[in-house]
Amino acid sequence: MTPAPTALPHRDPGLPDEERLDALLGLLTTEEKIGLLHQHQAPVERLGLAPFRTGTEALHGLAWLGPATVFPQAVGLAAAWDPDLLRRVGGATADEVLAARDRGAGRNVWAPVANPLRDPRWGRNEEGYSEDPWLTGLLAAAYARGLAGDGQRLRTAPTLKHFLGYNNETDRCTTSSDLPPRVLREYELPAYLPALREGSAVAVMPSYNLVNGRPAHLSPLLGDVLREEAPDELLVVSDAFAPGNLHGLQGFHPDAPTAYAAAIRAGLDSFTQDDDRPEETLGHIREALKRGLLTEDDIDRAARRALSVRLRLGEFDPGPADEGAADTPAFRALAREAAARSIVLLRNEGGVLPLRDVRRVAVVGQLGDTVLEDWYSGTLPYAVTARAGLAERVETVFCEGADRVRLFTFGAGVVAEPGEGEPLRLESVGREAAPVLPPGSGFALLDWGGGAFALRSEQTGKYLDEGPDGVLACTAPGPGTWEVRQTFRLEEVIAGHLYTLVQIHTGRHVCVGSDGATLELSEDGARALPVWIRGLGSGAEEAARVAATADVAVVVAGDHPMVNGRETEDRTDLALPAAQERVLRAVRAANPATVLVLSSGYPFAVTWADEHVPAVLWSAHGGQEYGRALADVLFGDTEPSGRLPQTWYRSADDLPDLLDYDIISSGGTYLYFDGEPLYPFGHGLGYTRVEYLDPEVAVDGDRVSVRVRVANTGTRPAEEVVQVYTRQLTSRVRVPLRALRGFARVRVEPGESAVAEVSFDTARLALWDTTRDRFTVEQAPREVLVGRSAADIRSVLPLDVPGEVIPPRDAARAWAADGYDEARGTVLCPAAPDRGDAVRSRHPGSWLLMRGVDFGEGVSSCRVRAGSERPAEVRLVLDDPHAGPTLAALKVAPGGPYDFAEVAAPVVGAQGVRDLYVVLDTPGTAVAEIAFDR
Fold it and tell me: Which residues are in the Fibronectin type III-like domain (predicted)?
């Protein structure tokens, strides 16, 4: 007789969780366990298990399920530099997730994003927190704690995204991120580990890309590192449709059963594949089990992790469920607070801000009277735009500043004004017809940068979109959806006048249909419709006219979160969209009291504005209360207290290649960038003046404490973020130019002072020692830097902490080749399908350097584990890869990609401590391990 579900042991809260899990797992059949390994977990009614789904998006509020409180984007929340704020926003989001269960919200939430923001061109820059891994880890853990709650049971089950080495959308499923051991241990992993160690995140999602040539979904790091750090059973869920890539786009395995078995063995527990249709995925797992690629123990481990999260959510406990809450007055107030505190004052010259004695403000710009949703936001319950927020306080006049254009063709006529939902058509015009643009006619041409434009009907307010059969009509509310079809590129035919229009999504040209009148898309470029565009530049002229009528002009510029920088699309530059730049310059010429407000999910290289515009502010897209929050800061009701969570560069030329993940070698992020940024990491101004006085550093055992007195010498309260960095002055390897160790927020009234204290463990000073594969605090002189940003340092103090001398690399032990100190012309690759990395040459003369090898009195021979798909040679060279003496040349026989074999050769002339270069003259040659014999 089947026991009643309420009498089953897994429903007994008096038993320890481990016993409840053991009992439940023992009651399940193999088929029922397999049914738990998909995003949509099958119910088991006989045991009282309801259906369960992983994956509710909750990046900065509940997403995809209708109206919900929309907080600032994640990078904006990070700009507040306040873990408590992130925790409170996470808690409000958890409330709204729970309140939306009747709309399909599941309690496994896919947030936060813990990818450090290595490159600001990443299309998903808006989703992360910071380029600093420690700050990212701190804020991710805080947001996850808010989502999870502080009770014995989880309110929601947070999932860290996306593990790991993921900062490019370009070919994201087929590109590989090279993470040498130091980059992995010092930069990537520290962003993920805090939330796992404290248990605020209970799941991890691998990324789409490959890492060191192996799909992230098959990475041994899932088991070797993450599960060791998580205090409880860690659930690993795949990204959407990523499992299919393992045997599809990535071609890493020959078929789905082999690929899915390898993923489960690597640590994947839940397959997000084929949406709510799990049967095909489960069939592949059954087939893998049948072939012997999986064991019952493999299935048990994955099923147990899936059930562990549900147990910790309290699903099997008696009592009423937490109902949550939605769109409360408290949440609206929190949205306003978060939006205000995320605003960063980048520049403020001439006393323009805060606004005083202002009667009339001109609000100008494409973002001046709109609040935009991004892909991972909820539906705005309401929206307070910049114009609306300022209008609550002062008289405003508005000008969007977009060029208002009409479209003409050779001989065929002008594009007619479309009615609601009507296809675009040509109408004949006489030769004398003038391109007059009456109010409410024509199209607004919106420039979102990167060559992406949107056309909006001035008559209906709808955007040009692709309809059935490629027919064009103004039907869209704006650019959006997963496939953005509402943006076009202008291909110049006659400079400044004649263009063809190309839909960016498909690359198809706008042309005249077979009826001779309707406009549609064609794949035949020869049928492209040359279009005269009348009105280019009109937006800047109108903006200047309006700005001249006001006491202050506020230009609100930036990006559209769905265009030119979003999931699936990286940016190619850092420039402000050209038309928006024209508007800004025209407004500044018309009104010296101009304020530039940037609203974007990433930095811009606004070098002209920094030289010519008195005041510049930035925030991420701020959500429903953006306009009121902006007004709070502009009028000085709220002190600007945000700080930049990433470097703003002067040009994309200052950045390494987008796919170069080795920030140490390439000089990436504020840690290693030695140029002059436009605005440095940590930058942010206030409305008053502060001084840093009496700095002190004390070391007590394993703890460093830094104290400084902050004096407010101005006339307004100060909201100061005191930042503490360290730098190591000597090392055997390249070390950061400065590294953030902590920060403290202090509020100081005018004429008063307050003491800020920051403390950190000396273990934070360690680097990954590749000679011994462990973290080491190196014996070296150090300094503490106290200041307002990574570049605005107010005090420098010596820091004396115990350390050890890293010894030379011992030639008596074998070393992994990927533990090199430097490399040129190489990539990392798998040494075997499941685990182990090697270093592969990309072109002739590639090399890797092992610095300071101790050969002692000499060695007799060397052994190298290497592979190549064609005959090759590996040379070991001392001191200089081009002119140094060759110790040995080892021949490598051709084989498959994983056919690594040990080759040996005698060695003569190696004594003492020398730098060793491993030179790979043949492209495709890979080295996994190097060893010497005495």
Answer: 720-790
Tell whether the model's pLDDT for residue 209 goes beyond 50: yes
- How much is the pTM? 0.96
- In this structure, which amino acid lies at residue 323? E
b/e sequence 329-341, b meaning 16+ C-beta within 10 Å: eebbebbbbbbbb
- Write the CA distances from 313 to 52, 382, 470, 846, integer angstroms: 12, 32, 48, 52
The contacts of residue 680 (CB under 8 Å, 6+ apart) are 644, 647, 648, 670, 789, 790, 791, 792
Tokens describing residue 116: 């450090």
Sign (positive or negative) of CA dihedral 578, 583, 589, 591: negative
Contacts of 468 (CB under 8 A, 6+ apart): none
CA-based radius of gyration for the chain: 30
Strand order, beta sheet including 210-211: 176-177, 210-211, 214-215
Amino acid at 678: L
Q: Evaluate whether 162 touches 116 at the Cβ level (below 8 Å).
A: no
Percent of the chain that is helix, strand, coil (3-state, to 5) = 25, 30, 45
Tokens found for residue 294? 């999986």
**pLDDT (tens digit, 9 = 90+) per residue, 677-721?**
999 999 999 999 999 999 999 999 999 999 999 999 999 999 999
Domains, the chain, ordered by start: 29-312 (3.20.20.300), 688-799 (2.60.40.10), 809-933 (2.60.120.260)
The span from the CA of 825 to the CA of 691, in Å, is 48
Distance CA 117, CA 552 (A): 35
Name the residue with tokens 């998909």: 38
Cβ within 8 Å of residue 583, ≥6 positions away: 364, 365, 401, 539, 540, 543, 555, 557
Q: Give the single-character DSSP code of 414.
A: E
Ramachandran quadrant class, 439 (left: phi over 0; alpha: psi -120 to 50; beta: rest): beta
Phi, psi at residue 686, to the nearest 5°? -125, -175
- What b/e readout covers 188-205, taking b as 16+ CB neighbours within 10 angstroms? bbbbbbbbbeebbbbbbb
In 328-410, the DSSP E strands lie at 344-348, 360-364, 395-399, 403-409
Q: Is residue 279 packed enough to be buried (19+ CB in 10 Å), middle (13-18) or exposed (0-12)? A: exposed
Query: What is the pLDDT, as a whole number, of residue 432?
Result: 39
Cα distance between residue 122 and residue 243, in whole Å: 23
Residue with tokens 């306009």: 627
Q: How many CB atoms lie within 10 A of CB 883?
A: 7
Angle ∠(586,589,593) on CA atoms, nearest 5? 110
* Residue 439 pLDDT level (bands cut at 50, 70, 90): low
Under the banding of pLDDT at 50, 70 and 90, the label for residue 518 is: confident
**How far apart are the C-alpha atoms of 582 and 578, rounded to whole Å?**
6
Q: Rounded CA gap, 480 and 158, in Å?
A: 27
> Tokens representing 890?
């080892």
CA 527 to chain centre: 40
